[in-house]
Amino acid sequence: MRTLLALAFALSIVPMLYAGEPACFELRTYHAAEGKLEALQSRFRDHTASLFAKHGMTNVAYWTPKENAGQTLVYLLAYPDRAARETSWKAFLADPVWQAAKTESEKDGKLVAKVESLFLHLTDYSPKLPIAAGKAPRVFEMRVYTTNPGKLATLDTRFRDHTVGLFAKHGMTNLPYFHLDEGQPGAETTLLYFLAHDSVEAQKASFDAFRADPAWIAARDASEKDGKILIDQGVASTLLEATDFSPVK
User: Fold this and answer.
1) What is the pTM assigned to this prediction?
2) Alpha-carbon distance 100 to 103, whole Å?
3) Which of 6, 144, 178, 241 is close enough to 245 for a disulfide, judged by CB 3.0 to 4.6 Å?
4) Is the peptide bond before 80 cis (omega within 30 degrees of 0)?
5) What is the pLDDT of residue 20?
6) Which residues pair with residue 227 across a beta bridge?
């Protein structure tokens, strides 16, 4: 029954993914209270995600890390713009259906210990919505690059002219690429993007082939002739799996 409900929900919001390119994205990470991740996901599955759609938010994807020691739920929402985001959240929080669902779900304690939020916008070389379908279940990957000061534009050029195409050449599916909105820590030095792979093994094989590709090596060396682009340890990667109620799988 849950599978059927999740499918019905996903199908109900597909038109929103085609309704026009949103200008504002929000990546939200919920750290579940101890032992509460399953209950948190149930609340999203049964109430939250559909209420987001009711109030004009586009549910893009919901994931949990494959190694989830922190008991987190990571999800991506889209809005027409930042003002629309504020209006939607105000209406959502005031919705009696949400308030009742929250109260009922927390009768044995709060479900969320901490919430982190990043506001994002697509790079000019990012794939657009809707996110491409693939063989389910796929393995997703969130990658965050931190550049040295003044090097983000150089990194963008390398991705635009070389990296994105080489990822596709080696079997990776490019999903959205983002910059952080101004005013947030790291906005001038951060590239955040998502990939999809057929499996964990495929992810490793693809990156091994990519890193050994002479075209990549030449592009990397040419782009760094005036200095390294990334800081030391400047790449963070998290493997993710889609929840059963995620529109993207």
Assistant:
1) 0.90
2) 5
3) 6
4) no
5) 59
6) none
